[in-house]
Amino acid sequence: MSIVLGVLMLFAVIALMSLFTFKAPYGRKSVSALSGAACATFLPQAFLSYAIGEVFHVEIARQIGDVMGSMGGLAAGALVPLAFGISPVFSMIVGISLMKFKLLPAFIAAYLISFLIKEIEKRVTGGLDLIVVVLVAPLLTNLVATLIQPGVMGILTVIGGTITAATKGNPYVMGAVLGAIIPLVGMTPLSSMVLTSLIGLVGTPMAIGALGCTGNSFLNFSFFRKMKFGDDATTIAVTIEPLTQLDIISANPIPIFVTNLVAGAINGIIVTMFGLVVRVTGMATPWAGLIVVFGMNPLVRTLIAVILIFINSTIWAYVGAYFFNHADIKIHTIDEIREAKDEKEAGHVVHGHAAV
């Protein structure tokens, strides 16, 4: 039952993310800001803390990576107001006030408070707006984030319960469930790194998470090219870190998540068959996770498993692309998403001039 509940919760998060992207005011721009915040914090942490710090025992790299990884709240809190067109000073005030919070609660709080700051910028002039923002924004932002954070962590706990339950059953069922779920979480703001750290995942389950995310990147490299979601830069970016293209992912949830779900389940079984392990938690990230797996397992066995994962992921990329290119499903490209952003910005500018 916990497995079903966790999967349903994950799909609910994916659905809400897509709905927010298309329907919420400043939705696309805010999701792009969230992508930037995740990449500015989680990606350096993955490489510096885990790939370099853990595998090669470079302590200074681990310390720097840990610090950067803990700044998700600050990054989201600063980038979201900037996406609204709020001044850099006010954006940094919001970001710094959210420094102690996790990425997603900070994102939600910054998104909500940005509407208030926009009104303050409009209605309070003569330099007094800075005083008002200083007095109001940090307190309200912290209050909102404090109220939201338990709910976000609760969602992670429910999804994590799915993984915990799966590890207690048949190992190949575990491999399929973990291989399907963890990479999907890695393509949402919840973050697979945060999830696996939260539940303390280690051993073969953590190896499934790590190589599942690597397989996810293998798949998306071919899948994004065949689906023509964007240009070569888009394809390379999603291969390096899926969260860099969160706006495309949230705009096309069905083809991307379904294809990754099927391939990920098989990849999880492959990792289970080869008995690979990762002895540190939080390694559910494509390339840093791959390095750690190589560092903690026999070279030849790991190499064979990775080759099989690459083949499986690439096959499903082509199968998925063929199916969804011929299915009656609207595909949203990066040009379309950016054009919608530009039109919305132009609309705001025209409206502002009309008001004047």
Describe the protein in words.
The N and C termini lie far apart (58 Å). The relative contact order is 0.12. It is built from 16 helices and no strands. The protein has one domain (2-355). The radius of gyration is 21 Å and the shape is globular. Mean pLDDT is 88; it is low at 348-356. It is an all-alpha fold and 356 residues long. It has helices at 2-23, 27-54, 59-69, 72-83, 88-97, 103-123, 128-167, 171-185, 192-198, 204-227, 232-240, 246-251, 253-274, 286-296, 299-326, 334-355. The chain crosses the membrane at residues 33-52, 64-86, 147-165, 172-192, 198-219, 256-278, 298-324. This is Transcriptional regulator.
Reported for the largest beta sheet, the result is: none
Distance between the termini: 58 Å
Helix content estimate: over 70%
Question: DSSP strand (E) fraction?
Answer: under 5%
As for the number of domains, it is: 1
Broad structural category: mainly alpha
- Total beta-strand segments: 0
Order of helices and strands: HHHHHHHHHHHHHHHH
Rg on CA atoms, Å: 21 Å
Low-pLDDT segments, ≥5 res: 348-356
Shape: globular
Helix count from the secondary structure assignment: 16
Q: How much is the average pLDDT? A: 88
Pfam families: PTS_EIIC_2 (PF13303)
InterPro entries: PTS_EIIC
Transmembrane segments: 33-52, 64-86, 147-165, 172-192, 198-219, 256-278, 298-324
Domain Phosphotransferase system EIIC: 29-325
